[in-house]
TrEMBL record:
It holds the Pfam family STAS. InterPro entries: SLC26A/SulP_dom, SLC26A/SulP_fam, STAS_dom, STAS_dom_sf. It comes from the Bacteria. Keywords: Membrane, Transmembrane, Transmembrane helix. This is Sulfate permease, SulP family. It is a multi-pass membrane protein. Residues 441-555 form the STAS domain. GO terms for cellular component: membrane. It is found in: Membrane. The keyword Acyltransferase does not apply.
Length: 592
């Protein structure tokens, strides 16, 4: 309890690192971040089905609270594309985007997200996030990117298209309305998009979004966009966030609970992966549980001050680090500078054409798809299956179900792998002058006709018993004279009662066939399980060995001398001490 309460302590450890030098570096990084999030916050709020000012409020309140109570020195939280997309798809089922009901639901979900995350942080559940496959996040983000991009095509073309639905439903409505495309809107969106691309190629440290937004607004003014029926943004109804308790009934809260749980989960995955990534790069400590508490507080408090759910932003965090941020104060100053910019620039929002924001969002959506990581994942069949399950679910159904599908796919593949441990036969060979054991079948190595050296990787438990037994019977069929068996369990950490019964059965079977059975194991947990579950009572203490050398040295004298006399392989060193009267057509007997 004391550890959990310390997470909420108002005096944070990072405050001791703040001095005159760090203050200057953090102020510069904060100003740079404020410039980039001004157009980003507006764009992300639109993705979430909200007015632009909600995104700006989120970039102020959520950012400051998460930085203060979080664990990362440079991570910047706030509105993100993935959470904005999930927010829109989840809540638009119950209310029309932009309406008072929709806004109340969005703020309610945000508070619920914060409470779920806060509870998880105080319960110290941060370690569970590591069990989620990275492929789930990549697939989910790619699906969200396509959904976001498709949702902005209408704005870029200057046509009104009803919101809601999946990717194909949106595309169908867009195609039906394509005849109303306004060339002026297309030009404005194209100029904005091209401006971002050009600036990114010139210098990524420049505030590309705000410059591109200004270019789009200038093009709209030059082409007299309002006169050509191009949609413009309305003046912001509020510049400063205010305290507001959402008016939502109990039944609606129950309906919104699955959406809140999904958003909370996605947000934590984003924040922890980003925070841990930057901590590794900078050689800093990262406390996942403290970060969860910071994210939870930022959403719980933010939801009461007209913010919608936020999380860690990789783009803003990367920019923060590159700009020289030293402490979390940089993110807090970014929120402060944004508030000042908002007070100055709020009257100018009404001069921004909608296609300009659409151009920015299209670029953001494109950048969300990590093509390099996707190519890397495609090298693995298992991870490809997880990626495909997540991505296709997000594209073909509801985006919030994509995470669920990915987690289920990960769990199924994990269980399948656990139920099919590797069982292989090893044989000695030389690599760069050093003697070692390698897979006999894969490298076509000679095997002793009497002694089989086996290695197992994976748990020996109720679900893997059939697969293990099938592998062993296949080996028996291929080499029936190998009745003396050595099983190395160095790759095994779990043995349950069913697994112990299997090992006992194999020990008795080998001895019934006139051979013997030995086990190599050193892991204390496995040794305790072998004793507790009765395997050692059947095996015998003198048949348990710490390494291959010991096991082979004890097994070699028990092998049939008659077979050794006719064997020209001499696979093991110990074979040199065995009777030898054979030679083969290829030359004298050899020892490997």
């Amino acid at each position: 309890m004391t550890d959990s309460l310390s997470m909420l302590y108002l005096r944070r450890p990072w405050m001791a690192r703040v001095d005159r030098a760090t203050l200057g570096a953090d102020a510069l990084a904060g100003l740079t971040n404020a410039a980039i999030v001004l157009p980003q916050g507006m764009a992300f709020a639109i993705i979430a089905g909200l007015s632009p000012h909600y995104g700006l409020f989120t970039a102020i309140i959520t950012t400051a609270v998460a930085a203060f109570w979080g664990s990362s020195s440079v991570m910047v939280s706030g509105p993100t594309t993935a959470i904005s997309a999930v927010m829109f798809t989840a809540i638009s089922t119950y209310a029309v985007p932009g309406t008072e009901t929709y806004i109340a639901m969005a703020l309610t979900v945000t508070v619920m997200v914060g409470m779920i995350q806060l509870a998880a942080g105080l319960a110290r559940l941060g370690g569970l996030i590591a069990f989620i496959s990275h492929s789930v996040i990549v697939g989910f983000t790619a699906a969200a990117a396509i959904l976001i991009g498709v949702s902005q095509l209408g704005g870029a073309l200057g046509v009104e298209v009803a919101g809601g639905g999946g990717v194909f439903e949106r595309l169908s409505r867009l195609i039906s309305a394509i005849g109303g495309t306004k060339p002026t809107a297309v030009v404005i969106a194209a100029v904005t998009l091209l401006c971002i691309l050009a600036i990114q190629r010139i210098d990524k440290r420049m505030p590309a979004y705000i410059v591109a937004l200004a270019a789009g607004a200038a093009m709209g003014w030059a082409l007299d966009a309002p006169a050509r029926s191009v949609a413009m943004f309305s003046e912001l109804p509020a510049v400063l966030p205010s305290f507001l308790i959402p008016d939502v009934g109990p039944s609606q809260i129950i309906d919104l609970l699955p959406a809140a749980a999904t958003i909370a989960f996605v947000g934590l995955l984003e924040a922890i992966s980003i925070g841990r990534s930057f901590a590794v790069r900078r050689g800093e400590k990262f406390d996942a549980n403290q970060e969860i508490v910071g994210q939870g507080l930022s959403n719980a408090i933010g939801g009461l001050f007209q913010c919608y759910a936020g999380s860690g932003s990789f783009t803003r965090s990367g920019l923060n680090a590159e700009s020289g941020a030293r402490t979390p104060l940089a993110a807090i100053l970014a929120a402060t500078f944004l508030l000042a910019l908002l007070l100055i620039l709020a009257p100018l929002v009404q001069y921004i054409p909608v296609p300009a924001i659409s151009g920015i969002i299209l670029y953001v959506a494109w950048r969300l798809i990590n093509f390099a990581e996707i190519r890397h994942i495609l090298r693995s069949r298992a991870e490809t299956a997880i990626l495909a399950a997540t991505f296709l679910t997000g594209i073909l159904t509801h985006l919030e179900l994509a995470i669920v599908a990915g987690v289920i796919a990960s769990l199924v593949l994990f269980l399948y792998d656990s139920a099919h441990p590797f069982v292989g036969v090893g044989a000695p060979t030389y690599v760069d002058g050093h003697r070692c054991f390698k897979n006999a079948d894969r490298f076509n190595l000679p095997q002793c006709p009497q002694l089989r050296m086996m290695r197992m990787h994976g748990p020996v438990f109720f679900a893997s018993g059939d697969a293990i037994e099938m592998s062993l019977r296949k080996m028996d069929a291929e080499r029936p004279d190998q009745t003396n068996l050595i099983l190395e369990l160095k790759g095994t950490e779990k043995i349950d009662m069913a697994g112990a019964d299997l090992l006992i059965s194999e020990i008795l079977r080998a001895r019934d066939r006139g051979g013997d059975f030995r086990i190599i194991a050193t892991y204390p947990g496995v040794l305790r399980q072998l004793v507790r579950l009765g395997v050692m009572q059947v095996l015998g203490r003198n048949h348990l060995h710490p390494n291959k050398t010991s096991a082979i040295a004890k097994a070699a004298p028990t092998l049939s001398e008659d077979i050794c006399r006719t064997c020209g392989l001499r696979v093991f060193h110990e074979c040199a001490q065995r009777p030898c009267g054979a030679s083969n057509d290829d030359g004298p007997a050899r020892s490997v």
